[in-house]
Design brief:
Blueprint (H helix, E strand, L loop, with lengths): L3 E3 L6 H13 L2 E5 L5 H15 L3 H5 L11 E3 L5 E2 L2 E2 L3 E5 L27 H27 L8 H5 L5 E7 L11 E6 L5 E6 L6 E4 L5 E3 L7 E5 L1 H6 L9 E4 L7 E8 L14 H4 L17 H12 L1 H7 L8
Parallel strand pairs: 1-2
Antiparallel strand pairs: 2-12, 3-6, 4-5, 6-7, 7-14, 8-13, 9-12, 9-14, 10-11, 10-13
Helix pairs in contact: 1-4, 2-4
């Protein structure tokens, strides 16, 4: 089972030290005491079910394929991880901003969302969730910084202007018991941003986290908790003292339907994540940034996000940017 962290406990040196060590070794934990209104979280699941129950033509009217900013709906099988098809449908939502005139490369990720006209509650609910989780996420970042003997506000400037949050509202359909297409709900991967807070439907399972030894452990939903994990940019910021952890979702034959809502706390697209100078006793334990030629890590958030988005959605990339090199 993943460790459990209560946000209130992080106001103490002992609590921050425990947070640091958990995310040095595991990279994942359950977060309690976050203070996010239970009524809001219930409303998120209600509106998610309403969205996925819409007629197919209504969902396709906001298809990501219509968006050069990689926003909108993906049908089941419309996203790839490690080149393999994921068994889920989802809508991707970011900050509601106009496109940047003349934008190139990763700055093209900024732009408007696509909202289904017959479900106005979706936009209002996601905006409320964004506001609540941005506050929790920044509190966590300040605690991490303090635990590493850095200025607690060291990350603040990167988030001060136009943070590039990403929210996914996800449905994993039930997989038929006689299914032979595999069990990949989402393939093994790391998150490209700073940190992720995952809201899981009560009673659901399927999420697995890779351990330091290369084994996989289950991370089922826990009542009242978010599942939190660090992303690649926090690995970069700490020289690998904190390392982003691979995780996956399995939907084996016979698996029931489940919903999840990951919230990715990210700085501005053009923000360079600050690198923390670790004290000697921590620097000696830092493992360095993982060097994987197939997955380079960038310290500018937009570069890291563009890498991930173009790989996950090659159809969107090909439609809007056909003259560019293959993603990745």
């Amino acid at each position: 089972m993943l460790p459990i962290v209560d946000l209130a406990e992080l106001d103490t040196p002992a609590g921050r030290e425990r947070l640091r060590e958990i995310t040095h070794h595991v990279g994942f934990f359950y977060l309690d005491g976050h203070g996010v209104d239970r009524e809001l979280l219930d409303r998120v699941f209600t509106v998610a079910r309403e969205f996925f129950a819409l007629p197919e033509d209504s969902k396709q009217s906001v298809a990501m394929l219509n968006s050069p900013h990689f926003r909108g709906y993906n049908r089941v099988g419309g996203e790839l991880t490690n080149g393999e098809t994921d068994w889920r449908e989802q809508i991707d939502i970011g900050p509601e901003r106009p496109p940047i005139p003349g934008a190139a490369d990763y700055l093209r990720l900024q732009g408007p969302n696509q909202w289904p006209g017959d479900l106005p509650d979706l936009e209002k609910t996601i905006e409320a969730l964004d506001a609540a989780l941005a506050d929790v996420g920044m509190r966590l970042l300040r605690h991490w910084a303090a635990s590493l003997d850095a200025d607690p506000a060291i990350f603040d400037d990167a988030f001060a202007h136009a943070p590039a949050t990403l929210i996914k509202v996800v449905r994993y359909p039930a997989r038929p018991s006689a299914d032979h297409t595999g069990e990949q709900g989402v393939g093994a991967h790391k998150d490209s941003g700073v940190l992720t807070m995952l809201l899981l439907e009560p009673g659901s399972s399927g999420l697995q986290v890779e351990t330091e030894d290369g084994d996989w452990i289950d991370a089922p939903a826990r009542a009242g908790s978010f599942v939190v994990n660090i992303g690649e940019l926090l690995e970069v910021a700490t020289g690998g003292y904190l390392r982003a952890t691979r995780h996956r979702v399995l939907t084996p034959a016979g698996a029931p339907e489940r919903l999840s809502v990951p919230y990715f706390l990210n700085p501005a697209l053009d923000a360079t994540v600050p690198v923390i100078t670790l004290p000697p006793h921590l620097a000696a334990r830092a493992r360095g940034i993982e060097m994987d030629p197939s997955n380079p890590l960038y310290n500018t958030y937009g570069e890291n996000a563009w890498k991930s988005r173009t790989r996950a959605h090659p159809d969107v990339y090909a439609r809007w940017y056909p003259d560019e090199a293959e993603p990745g």
